[in-house]
Specification:
The complex is a heterodimer of chains A (290) and B (284).
Chain A: H1 2-6, E1 16-25, E2 32-42, E3 47-51, H2 58-66, E4 73-78, E5 81-82, E6 90-93, H3 105-109, H4 111-115, H5 121-133, H6 149-161, E7 167-171, H7 179-196, E8 199-204, H8 207-213, E9 216-220, E10 227-232, H9 241-246, H10 248-270, H11 274-289
Parallel strand pairs in A: 3-8, 3-9, 6-7, 7-8
Antiparallel strand pairs in A: 1-2, 1-4, 4-5, 9-10
Chain B: H1 5-25, H2 27-30, H3 37-45, H4 62-73, H5 76-109, H6 111-124, H7 133-139, H8 143-168, H9 172-180, H10 185-223, H11 236-246, H12 249-277
Helix pairs in contact in B: 4-12, 5-6, 5-8, 5-10, 5-11, 7-8, 8-10, 10-11, 10-12, 11-12
Classes of the chains: A alpha/beta (290), B mainly alpha (284).
């Protein structure tokens, strides 16, 4: 495995800066501000996790970062240069699998290099390395329909990583997986991250997931989306799932983030959001258990 | 296959069907004894002919059909009819694929093509292919090309509509993912749009194939089978029409069953080709 590791191309992590970005849909009094004057930095070679209540405009923010949509105001800079349009520099893993169903795992992973005409012996070897890293060697010639949900997510991770993006953007990638699979995915994903330290931007609604994975945690407000707080998650790496339960520091961070989210939910609850009511109820149950 | 209960269910189904048909057709013979008098009285009261079962009693029995089939089996013009119908179906169908698939794809991908092509297409589409028979006999130089054109129309609309719908329903995330990874437009067409539309192409072709068989038979009947020299055969549709005119009722049924078999063979070929072309759908 070590000689395979040697073929890994040099990783050039980037830094993504969001400066005063707003995004609204519709016009005049039908206008809805989804993101309003939002600023934050996705720091170089760090795993930044954005956590916020569901429906808070995180997915809109991701479409802006990926370049599928343009902000109504403000700028998004990658290493100081404004981004325009989708690019391999900023690859997105979507909520549901976007593996091409008509390609095998291996063809899916090699899609990017093949599309750009960069299919060399090195990229193939790097592909093999990634395939083994996500534990899919035995499934290389299977179609996505033949893979389990967790395997599909892993194949997609490999398909993104082979392109050496400067920033990897993950939009609730493990949503919908069962609890056991989800924890397995956390392990796979954090090992991959710890080994090569790319710039990662990970969006989730799951606070445990956020604490386990993050270097930095951005806690978001409800619509219009803004950053409420930035929390440094200074837990040692490599992380183990047991730390999530036993470490006092992890629990402190979790409480801190939850109380911000709770305050945020109360505010939108008072404005009539039903989703926020669910969150408040779940929070109170959880607080009484702890 | 022999261990598969589904196979034996099919065998039983066909056997029972043939037996009931044979019994019904022979009702002229077995209704002769006088203990069927009440039944005959009942049929007469219902307004049917009294000496055999309604409808089915007028149809030649399977045994008679089989005899007639054996007679035409060695007749070259019968096989010539098969060949001609197959040739017409395939030429119309292949032309519909060659023109229909690119046309459907361009309607799906280009707003300009859709704006120009779709209104005309939508006005022509509801016209049944058989309504084109008189016009195409007038416009096309030979009867053969007229029949091929009508079979072409039968498959064309279905293929275009399926390709258009299939290409449009490709998930937008596939395009976003491909674009992000640096795909050119040609690459997206070749590796996303084309395979993404392929299942719809297969479905559209299968439906279109069924319609071509319906259309070719009717076109042959109406146009008089194209070539009318003796012994050359004029397609299976003309074979049926000719048998009807000649009063050979067994041969009508032979022709009908032949078309059933021909249609089955062509859709089976198509299904097989479709499965081969879309291996990722076979794996469920």
């Amino acid at each position: 495995m070590s000689e395979v590791a040697a073929v890994r191309p040099k990783i050039v992590p980037g830094e993504l800066a969001v400066e005063g970005v707003s995004k609204s849909y519709g016009a005049l009094h039908f206008r809805k501000d989804v993101v309003q004057n939002c600023s934050f930095t996705i720091e170089r070679a760090k795993l930044t996790v954005m956590v916020g209540p569901s429906g808070c405009g995180k997915s809109t923010l991701i479409r802006l970062l990926a370049g599928f949509e343009e902000p109504s105001a403000g700028r998004i800079l990658l290493d100081g240069a404004p981004v325009s349009g989708p690019s391999r520099d900023r690859l997105v893993l979507f909520q549901e699998t976007a593996l091409f169903p008509w390609m095998t795992t291996w063809e899916n992973i090699l899609y990017g290099p093949r599309a750009r005409g960069e299919l060399t012996r090195e990229t193939r070897e790097f592909g093999e390395f990634l395939l083994s890293k996500v534990g899919l060697q035995d499934f290389r010639d299977k179609y996505p329909l033949q893979l389990s949900g967790g395997m599909q997510r892993r194949a997609e991770l490999a398909r993104a990583m082979i392109n050496n993006p400067k920033v990897m953007i993950l939009d609730e990638p493990f949503r919908g997986l069962d609890a056991m699979t989800k924890e397995l995915m956390w392990e796979y994903y954090s090992r991959l991250y710890e080994e090569n330290r790319r710039t990662n931007f990970f969006v989730t609604t799951d606070i445990d997931e956020a604490v386990f994975l993050a270097d930095r945690m951005l806690v978001m407000s409800n619509i219009p989306t803004q950053v409420r707080a930035v929390i440094d998650v200074d837990l040692p790496r490599p992380r183990r799932l047991i730390d999530l339960v036993e470490s006092d520091r992890a629990n402190d961070i979790k409480k801190q983030a939850l109380s911000i989210l709770h305050a945020e939910a109360m505010r939108s609850f008072s404005r009539g959001s039903k989703a926020a009511a669910d969150f408040v109820e779940a929070y109170l149950k959880r607080a009484s258990r702890a | 296959m022999l261990a598969n209960p589904a196979f034996w269910r099919g065998v039983v189904s066909i056997a029972v069907f043939l037996i009931l048909w044979e019994i019904g057709s022979r009702s002229k013979q077995w209704m002769a004894p006088e203990f069927f008098t009440p039944l005959k009285g009942f049929l007469g009261a219902m307004g049917f002919k009294k000496d055999y079962l309604p409808w089915v009693g007028a149809v030649p029995a399977p045994s008679a059909v089989l005899g007639s089939w054996a007679a035409v089996f060695v007749d070259a013009s019968y096989w010539q009819s098969w060949y001609m119908s197959f040739f017409r179906v395939m030429s119309g169908f292949i032309a519909a694929m060659i023109i229909g698939i690119p046309f459907g794809l361009s309607l799906a991908m280009s707003r300009v093509a859709h704006g120009i092509g779709f209104p005309v297409f939508e006005v022509l589409r509801p016209i049944p292919p058989l309504a084109w028979v008189p016009a195409s006999i007038i416009f096309w130089p030979t009867q053969e090309s007229a029949i091929a054109f009508i079979t072409f129309l039968g498959a064309f609309y279905t293929i275009v509509i399926n390709v258009l719908g299939g290409a449009r329903s490709i998930d937008v995330r596939y395009f976003q993912a491909a674009q992000s990874m640096g795909s050119s437009n040609w690459d997206i067409f070749r590796r996303i749009i084309l395979p993404g539309t392929l299942p719809s192409i297969v479905v559209g072709s299968a439906v279109g194939m069924g319609i071509t068989w319906e259309v070719v038979v009717a076109a042959e009947m109406i146009s008089g089978g194209g070539s009318q020299q003796a012994g050359t055969g004029g397609g299976l549709g003309f074979f049926i029409w000719n048998s009807y005119v000649g009063g050979s009722y067994e041969q009508i049924v032979v022709g009908m069953i032949s078309i059933g078999i021909a249609g089955f063979i062509s859709s089976e070929l198509l299904r097989w080709g479709g499965r081969y072309a879309t291996p990722w759908l076979r794996v469920r």
